[in-house]
Design a protein that fits this description.
Blueprint: H1 2-5, H2 10-22, H3 24-42, H4 45-70, H5 75-83, H6 87-99, H7 103-110
């Protein structure tokens, strides 16, 4: 940022060159990491990874709630939950898991 502000200043330019050469690996990590991060954001990967992470968190929360409440979760119910990828739907399903009195009642919410 500072280099961009003072690009015409040869003293700043020379200083950056010396710092970059002396700490080449660190300089490369910082500059490339920043560029890569921006590139991944532009392509939508960061949003996708964040949504996948939230979905995984909610899948685990739903299954944990069911196991705590009913001890055993039938395989067909677990399979349906594991295939879900919408974090908002999974969050709602978590509420159903907490509020359902029976596994059949919960299974109806999956339909």
């Amino acid at each position: 940022t500072e280099v961009a502000k003072h690009r015409k200043d040869t003293a700043v330019d020379a200083y950056i060159d010396v710092v970059a050469e002396a700490n080449f690996e660190t300089f490369q990590e910082v500059t490339m990491g920043k560029k890569l991060d921006n590139y991944l954001k532009e392509l939508g990967f960061v949003d996708k990874w964040q949504a996948e992470g939230k979905a995984e968190t909610w899948r685990n929360a739903v299954l944990a709630a069911l196991r705590k409440k009913f001890t055993i979760v039938p395989e067909h119910i677990e399979t349906v939950i594991r295939q879900m990828s919408d974090p908002i739907a999974l969050e709602s399903l978590h509420s159903y898991a907490l509020d359902s009195q029976t596994l059949d009642e919960f299974a109806d919410a999956l339909k």
